[in-house]
Amino acid sequence: MGDLDLVTFLLALLAGAVRVGTPFIFVSLGECLTEKGGRINLGLEGILVAGAMTGYAVAYLSGSPWTGVVAAGGTGLLLGLLHGIVCSLPRVNDIAFGIALMLLGTGLAFFLGKAFIQPQAPILPSIALGEWSEDARVRSALNINVLFFIGVALAVSLHWGLRSTRWGLVLRLVGDHSESAQALGYRPLRVRVMATAVGGFLAGVGGSYLSLYYPGSWNEGLSSGQGLMAVALVIFARWQPLNCLWASLLFGATGAIGPALQSVGITSGYYLYSAAPYILTMAVMLATCRPNRTLTGAPGELSLNR
Fold first, then answer.
1. CA–CA separation, 253 vs 276, rounded Å?
2. How many Å apart are CA 16 and CA 257, to the nearest integer?
3. Across the chain, what does the average pLDDT equal?
4. How large is the average pLDDT for residues 239-267?
5. How far is CA 181 from the centre of its chain?
6. Do 270 and 258 contact (CB within 8 A), yes or no?
7. Do 173 and 37 contact (CB within 8 A), yes or no?
8. Which of 21, 31, 110, 221 is most buried, taking the most CB atoms under 10 A from its CB?
9. Alpha helices of the chain — where are they, by DSSP H?
10. Average pLDDT of the residues in 246-265
11. pTM metric for this prediction
12. What φ, ψ does residue 128 adopt, rounded to 5°?
């Protein structure tokens, strides 16, 4: 690989990290909030797919991609609220219901979305940051969707909010020691329901990115397990919003290895490179599931600790 090919590969990898990593940012931040409150939501895959379908359908019917994003977030909010309320009932396991929610969300999306597989909805706009360059590769790499910048701002805001605001301190207290929160007059179940609902909203927004920008269409194989991978990503990020941002870009870069190699003419082993995100997920789980590391940074009330 020559110097020119190396530059091309790195530019394609950078563009792919942003493009593929953006939905991971929203889903992982949503799950980070949920788990900070002491609850885990394995239904993210269903919320992501349902959000993608709803966002695409509403964008097609309304002609506005941003209306689709809001609708996708609303769908995620409702499914997250359902998860939060049901898991607040006695003897309901949040992991088991999360799996049921995953099946519910994907099933509803596949059933209701059949009519929207062929029509073309308007896509989300991008910001062209590479207009200063005459190199088409630079312009392509720096053509970045607006949702990416919103995700970065959200990660920074959540990092600050969890550390420096009252609601952040209350959420962390509920997630670490619910009895202490209750003794101070807070209602742990209400806080967890709200956190799970907001987490679902963010996951739904992440789903809208998949259908309204990249790959930019609605079909039943759209998600490819990104919702489940986001749970591993949050563990890898040690439940810190800024770490979720960097980890999302890392996962995005692994997903872009195949197309980046194709850009420099390397096509052999393409399907193996396409499996890189799943291999990374397995590696993350193996690396973090050692007895001396598994629970580092985990909220005390989380199911993983109990």
1. 9
2. 8
3. 88
4. 83
5. 29
6. yes
7. no
8. 31
9. 3-36, 44-62, 65-86, 94-112, 136-141, 146-164, 166-176, 178-183, 188-212, 226-236, 241-255, 257-262, 270-274, 276-288
10. 81
11. 0.92
12. -85, 100
